[in-house]
Design brief:
The structure holds two protein chains of two kinds. Chain A is 80% helix and 0% strand. Chain A is built from 14 helices and no strands. By secondary structure, chain B is an alpha/beta fold. Chain B has twelve helices and 13 strands. Chain B starts with a strand and ends with a helix. The chains are: A mainly alpha, B alpha/beta. Chain A binds chain B through residues 2-3, 6, 9-10, 13, 17, 20-21, 128, 131-133, 135-142, 145, 295-298, and chain B through 49, 52-56, 70-73, 75-77, 79-81, 83, 85-89, 91-92, 100-101, 103-106, 145, 148.
Chain lengths: 298, 313
Amino acid sequence: MKAMSRMLQTAVCELESALHSRRALVLALLYLISAICCMYGTISLFGKIEAEVAKVLQLPEGGKSGVISATLWKSEAFSRMVQKGVGDDLVFADIQGLHPVELAYAWIAFMLAPFLAAWSASNRIAEESHSGSVRYVLVRCTRAQWALGKYLGQVFMVGLALLLGALGAWLVAAFRLGGVDVVTLLPGMMDWALRAWLYSVSWLGLALGISQMTRSSNYATFFAPIGVIALDILPSLLQADWCREWGLANLDILSPLYSNHGLWRRSLPAVATSAFHLTVLGLFYWTVGHAVFRRRDA
Amino acid sequence: MIGTALSTRDLVKRYGRRRALDGFTLSVPRGGVLGLVGPNGAGKTTWMMTVAGMIVPTAGTIDLLGQGPFDADVHAGRLGFLPQDSELPLEATPAGLLHRYARLQGMRPGEAVQATAAMLKTVNLDERAASPIRTLSHGMRKRVALAQSFLGCPDVVLLDEPLNGLDPVEADRVRRFLLTRRGRQTIVISSHNLHDVEALCTHVAFVEQGRVVRMDALDRITRAAERVAYALGGEVDRTALVAALSQVLPMARFSWQGDVQLVCECDEVGGVAEINRLLLPILLARASVLSVVPGVPLEEVALSVAQPSARDA
């Protein structure tokens, strides 16, 4: 009970200090700007495509983007193209009815979440180890309680940033889209932000695992994105013939990408299974880092 | 002072070939104030960090409050620690930080608020309680760090250079505060300032090359009860003076240090007050007494204890 209470207190403090820390605020702001810019760019691209299509079909040009894209998205030819791109029939079936802007946001959120997690969390433990401020805490709670509290605090922090990002992206969509009831897009985009948040849990585990392994904030900040990229390409590498021969192909379960598709599904069991796997994976990365941290001089 | 609050036995901490602690054995009496004295790199800080659970020892045993080595689940709130050269979180405020630490060590919200306010007042920081720590001076930060180590009145407090960086007024305030803790808490102070150690501690341990070379009560170390040095002024007939003093205190040994300092050593009367009662009238009649210093200055003892290499350096 005491352990849980200390962990929660650390998590709350982590969230508070993240909100007071300039770095965390700058990162959250950068994420928000990135989400807004990507959304703006995507809608502009839709607009250009629509203008071209309208020109070819000699239709009157609309002032705002989105009208033709939504129609195009529903066309059979385009659907076949997307189905091939997605590479998973179940996922394709689930996302088929969604507005392209909503999907564009989902893609952006899933793409940016690992990097947001890596940059916001990677220095949190390393920095305090380096400055020595960890010593004031470790006479009051165990290393595991403290580091888990940090993890939990970062999970809240990233969740907040993702929801803000979704709100920012929706505002851009609301201003730039035409022919679409933008209010109906908001719950969908928030839903995707929540899914991206579940996805970020494992990446946060990776970032905090790395943060526990070093006292250098710079090293942690440098290696966390490298870790993200490495785990991103791991499943592709494991498809190589020699990996299959050596029975290594199944190790793709160690990459969060393994559960990425599950989070795109509409079925609750699929999402829950993926969320479970990602949480376990995050705790696994965290535990590997903690094995070093618990034996290291503070 | 009954029993031992903290003891370490044959504690070893190795960094590669170097041994920062090399069989560090020490017992701190409950309610005592122990001063750790030794040159830089002797192992004082490493020992404190090891006792506080920050450093994992290579070998040896630690017993903190009779419950084995430090374990936050067992000792949280019972051990206070002021580490050396450790920054506080810069964006936090003193009040916020102390409250957070108080809660973390198990205090209820109301208790934490009270303890925080009391400690901030003790270290004279109640007016800056809401300022972010990054806006505080070095001395103020040190006082916040000191305040956190006494939060909730822990049984054992380890202070690594507690008065470093404090201005004379604040150092005096902290000294007086520490004196009020004597007998109530067990305190270990590591300091290079031997005057502070003399003023604050009941016991002293001399540390050299990772081990304790001598530990005893301060009185016994400085021989405060059996030795007095009188600094004398004016024309003095040394032989006649010593003869007159020997008549009233025949069991005492008298010696001269330099031109003006007469040292009396006598362990057969009831302490320095009795020696003074017998000798001072004679001294005052024959010379001006500029000062009376009981015992050997700790600095002298430290130099005599120090390894030859350290002394030569």
